[in-house]
Amino acid sequence: MKLQRKNRLRATALGALAVSGALVLTACGSDNNTGTETEGGKTSAAASDVKCDGAEGQLRASGSSAQKNAMDLWVKNYMAACSGVEINYNSSSSGEGIVAFNQGTVGFAGSDSALKPEEVADSKKICKTGQGINLPMVGGPIAIGFHLEGVDSLTLDAPTLAKIFDSKIKKWNDPAIAKLNDGVKLPDKAIQAFHRSEDSGTTQNLGKYLNAAAPSDWKYEAEKKWPAPGGQAASGSSGVASQVKAVDGSIGYFELSYAASQDITTVDINTGGAAPVKATSENASKAIAAAKVKGTGKDLALDLDYTTKAEGAYPIVLVTYEVVCDAGNKAETLGTVKSFLTYTASDEGQKVLTEAGYAPIPAEINAKVRETISSLS
């Protein structure tokens, strides 16, 4: 059974599995994350898009754990190309990242949801001549992972997911689940649903999906703090994934790269389209491609369509933003912020996202991101 699960996951996230073993900042210098290696393995194809001009010293950043695996790849490639520059990204949560940014302790923050008006107002104290803006940098599916011995594939829809995470559906053989999985032998076993313990943009994006696609069954506001009673909490996407991996009868939500690296089977989503949709980078890209910029000025916050029924479009997606000052950045870190984010938004920087189980930002939107980064001051 375990082997079947592994084979199935490899078929949908092969690229993520290929790099999962090298997704730590402390990986040895001979690791190669992009598939291109020179003698000694110290450079990669991605390094060709790194421009180190103006970069120096240490740059601290923090926030979204959703983008951790992408950030680890970016940091490793960047630091290999820019000698003497250190990027220190603390993978905590979107909420903690915004707090750190508005306290002035980091050069940029990662957040899976755009800044709220009050957060923008707070940012003006740090961005002396400007304000915090949202730069979409990482896209991808929020995978619904499950661990159910004897079951290697599972289809759910938004109303059923809402009832599971709201503790309204408590057994795996509930008629609502059975109806979506004809021919699958579902056990009479309690569902153990895991959610994030800390404020999380991943939680908020899941809430936005459930609000939009199952409004009658999910009555909670889409906030970063988990709103529903019951369930069990774990810290970070990695913590939720680890619990799902360990506990039979469990279900949880996290980015696809965590499912791939821990060999967790993911749920197919019935959107009402022709066929259930798998959580893959390609399918997430189909949903993100329809996003529209809703921010004004240099702010590039996006409006996502969580109710899409487009063929092959996976609807539970998130976009992680890098939050920066449009003006008034600290002089000692501005050069490094611009250099590093120029790389992450480059063709090569975005290309490695697919290899790590994420989805690149659509080209038209990414062109605006690059233009905005070059104008930071």
TrEMBL record:
Assigned keywords, A-Z: Phosphate transport, Signal, Transport
Region forming the signal peptide: 1-27
Family matches, as InterPro entries: ABC_phos-bd_PstS, PBP_domain, Phosphate-bind_PstS
Superkingdom of source: Bacteria
Residues covered by the PBP domain: 56-348
Family per record: Belongs to the PstS family.
Name this polypeptide is given: Phosphate-binding protein
Gene name in the database record: pstS
